[in-house]
Design brief:
The complex is a heterodimer. By secondary structure, chain A is an alpha+beta fold. Chain A has one domain: Histidine kinase-like ATPase, C-terminal domain (Heat Shock Protein 90, 2-Layer Sandwich), CATH 3.30.565.10. In chain A, 37% of the residues lie in helices and 29% in strands. In chain A, α1 packs antiparallel against α2 and α2 packs antiparallel against α5. The two termini of chain A are 14 Å apart. The model of chain A has no long low-confidence stretch (mean pLDDT 95). A five-stranded mixed β-sheet of chain B has the order 1-5-4-3-2. Chain B is built from five helices and five strands; from the N terminus they run αββαβαβαβα. Chain B has a single domain, classed as 3-Layer(aba) Sandwich (Udp-n-acetylmuramoylalanyl-d-glutamate--2,6- Diaminopimelate Ligase, Chain: A, domain 1). Chain B is globular and about 30 Å long. In chain B, α3 links the parallel β3 and β4. Chain B is of the alpha/beta class. Classes of the chains: A alpha+beta, B alpha/beta. The complex binds adenosine-5'-triphosphate and magnesium ion. Adenosine-5'-triphosphate (ATP) binds next to α2 and α5 of chain A.
């Protein structure tokens, strides 16, 4: 199988449609016949990243590269960047507003979940420029 | 036990039940969505008081068997349609999260 790629624009204004790209990817991976555990890890990790782009960075883009032995998810935004990545990675650390919390987000568990569900999570970020996350899930 | 059998045993109000034959294998109670994504298992009955679009997405991604909205929380018509379309079973109950969780645990 040659590598398959999918591209999505993630709208930073529309909170209710946030997650559509991840749900679409889940469906595609299922059609491609990947094991359910791989599908679950990929789609949850991608969703956490997608939601973060909506909540913290006013949207961005998502690219998914599907190969037989691994799935790579790249999320890129031009938001505020993350000043202290080590702190942001801590369970429970969140800068989410009260409005975001009433929607069920802001537990500070998104980045820890991404790390937990993927084989590698790379964060490139610059304050005032944006953030690029690269996640790899091995099949 | 199937989702439908569980709903009948606990007198849950079905809001939508596109997959009545899904097996319920466990349960999870939580309202913080990232927490749920980190801990709920595939096949769980997920008990929550949250009711918005993101709940439907999280139910799809975690592959839970059903969502049980506790404390009298329900879904509006648009969300009900969305859940139906995504194949997510959703029930409502007046019971507290603790009370319905205890009942689910006793049945499994
Ligand atoms: N794409 C991003 N751009 C800028 N800041 C970000 C981005 N992603 C995460 N952050 C920062 O890192 C913090 C931790 O992120 P994480 O996803 O772990 O928690 P959260 O989004 O606040 O809550 P949760 O994911 O549990 O709903 C955020 O509160 C935010 O300050
Ligand atoms: Mg997050």
């Amino acid at each position: 199988m040659a590598a398959l790629t999918f591209h999505y624009d993630v709208d930073g204004q529309d909170f209710s449609s946030a997650g559509e790209a991840s749900v679409a990817v889940k469906k595609k991976l299922r059609q491609l016949g990947f094991p359910s555990d791989v599908i679950r890890r990929c789609s949850i990790a991608m969703y956490e990243g997608e939601i973060n782009m909506v909540i913290h960075a006013n949207g961005g883009t998502a690219d998914v590269l599907v190969e037989p032995e691994k799935i790579t998810i790249i999320l890129e935004d031009h938001g505020p960047g993350i000043p202290d990545v080590e702190l942001a990675m801590k369970e429970g650390y969140s800068t989410s507003t009260e409005a975001i919390r009433t929607m069920g987000f802001g537990a500070g568990m998104g980045l820890p979940n991404m790390k937990r569900y993927t084989e590698s999570l790379e964060i490139e970020t610059e304050v005032g420029v944006g953030t690029k996350l690269t996640m790899v899930v091995k099949v | 036990m199937t989702v439908q059998a569980l709903a009948e045993a606990l007198c849950l109000t079905p809001l939508c039940m596109p997959e009545p034959d899904r097996e319920v294998e466990g349960g999870y109670i939580g309202d913080l969505l990232s927490w749920v994504m980190g801990n709920a298992q595939s096949g769980d009955a997920w008990i929550t008081i949250m009711s918005n679009d993101n709940v439907v997405a999280v139910a799809v991604l975690t592959d839970v068997a059903c969502v049980i909205l506790s404390e009298g929380v329900t879904l509006d018509g648009r969300l009900r349609e969305l859940a139906e379309k995504k194949g997510i079973n959703v029930f409502s109950t007046e019971l507290s999260s603790f009370a319905v969780g205890a009942k689910v645990a006793a049945l499994l």
